[in-house]
């Protein structure tokens, strides 16, 4: 297999909305991996450790959403920009349909794409990234810490937020903190985070929620076979958020991983890969 380093896999796609950057590796049916939000996040950080396992079976495309410091920023809110970027990537590479694997925000983007463009999504995998709080308070602990960071971006607040993402805090190394801090405090990245998690934005979203149909109420429209994966100990998107998706998506399976926070694909890497690959490689009808 060719080298799977950051630079060896990095690609660019020019679109009418600027340059999209993505990482590509492997041959076979296309799988698009969509990253989460939060300070200093990139698609490469989210999925780089999973790339060797997936690239052995699929043409893997790790998309970098606009506004997070890698792809060109666009003049649009992060979520709609990300949804458009998925279609731009598929169209630009001549891909009629693909499997979508989305973490957190990427899960919401993948879910919205599966609802709005069912012909473009063969199978859907989410890591959190859908549903709504039923028993747990909303926003969750991790979202509140994220808001505190974007309002006052200090290194200490970044570390507090990172610790809320995992069950095992040993994963939050100085190297990871430095990597996240460097990108999280870049102007484009910080501006994007504020558009999603600033206090005023969250208040406006809460007020507007009374006038729109929530995403969780439309999950029954998903036609793609769906695998919902979740960390049992997630403090960002608590596990009870999975209940409505599990019950309402027509062809949904739920896989819960113990001793695991929000970064399921990182913290329970081997178990998560085993479950997801088995699902994606399963023949239609099985």
TrEMBL record:
GO molecular-function terms, A-Z: hydrolase activity
GO cellular component entries: membrane
SUPFAM superfamilies: alpha/beta-Hydrolases (SSF53474)
Record keywords, A-Z: Hydrolase
Alphabetized InterPro entries for the sequence: AB_hydrolase_1 (IPR000073), AB_hydrolase_fold (IPR029058), AB_hydrolase_sf (IPR050266), Epox_hydrolase-like (IPR000639)
Domain AB hydrolase-1 intervals: 29-267
UniProt keyword Hydrolase present: yes
The UniProt record lists the keyword Manganese: no
Lineage: superkingdom: Bacteria
PANTHER family: AB HYDROLASE SUPERFAMILY PROTEIN YCLE, MONOACYLGLYCEROL LIPASE
Protein name per its UniProtKB record: Alpha/beta fold hydrolase
Organism, scientific name: Amycolatopsis dendrobii
